[in-house]
Every structure is written in C-alpha cells, then in structure tokens.
Specification:
136 residues; mainly alpha; 61% helix; 3 helices; two-stranded antiparallel sheet; rod-shaped
Length: 136
C-alpha cells in the first residue's frame, strides 16, 4: 500500500507542476509562471526548463565506464578464466591425448593391414624364387 501512496504523491506533484503555467488574461497572449512550493521532486525535468549545452555535455552518462573500472573488470575476467583453465586444462589434455593415442593406434593398425593385404596379393600374383617348385 505504501507503493500506491508514493505513486499517487508523485502524480499529484507532476500535475501541480503542469498547472503552474497559466495564461494571464484572455486578451493577453503572454504566459506567466508562478513559483512552486519547494518539494523533494525538484529533480524531475520540466519541459520549460532551459539547460545549457555545456551543462548537458559535462554530465557523465551512467552508461559510460571509467577506464579504471574497465581495467579492473578485464583483470577480474582474466583471473577467473585463468583459474578455470588451471583446474580443467589437465583433464582436457589427458582426454585429448587418450583420444589421439587411440586414433593413432587405429590408423597404424589400418595402414599395416592394408600393407599386408597388398603384399599377400602381390605375392600370389608373382611366383617368386622363394617358392619351392612342386615335384609333381
């Protein structure tokens, strides 16, 4: 319920600001502004408020980071990544080496089988002097 009353108070304050500019008379085209009583809503911008260009440029945008904040953030990220790699790199390397070893063994076995098949096929095609002639 407190939020509700806060919202209502803010709306009332904005409506009072809007009503502060009224015309003098029906015959005059000039406008007069009456000062508002001091309230804690002075930080709200009003459309009739004049802001100099220097003041608008000199204000620091909350979206921009300070260079020291950026360097601290980069340092923290690098430290976190370094710690994670320190913990996980040995396991990753071991798994990679095991997989590479298995692939190497499979490749060597396949190459040796192919070479032996080719050798046996050529041996059957050619009659080499190492073969003993059949006496019959």
């Amino acid at each position: 319920m407190a939020e509700h009353s806060d919202v209502v108070d803010r709306i009332d304050s904005l409506m009072k600001r809007r009503r502060s500019f009224v015309a003098k008379t029906a015959s005059s085209n000039e406008s007069v502004s009456t000062p508002l009583p001091a309230s804690d809503d002075n930080d709200l911008p009003v459309l009739t408020e004049v802001v100099s260009a220097e003041a608008a440029v000199s204000e620091v945008s909350p979206d921009r980071f300070d260079e020291t904040q950026v360097s601290l953030l980069a340092s923290d990220i690098a430290h976190a990544i370094g710690q994670q790699l320190t913990y996980e790199l040995p396991t990753l390397l071991e798994a990679t080496l095991l997989n590479a070893g298995e692939e190497l063994r499979a490749g060597i076995t396949s190459t040796m089988e192919t070479a032996l098949r080719d050798f046996i096929a050529r041996r059957k095609q050619l009659r080499l002097p190492l073969d003993e002639p059949n006496p019959n």
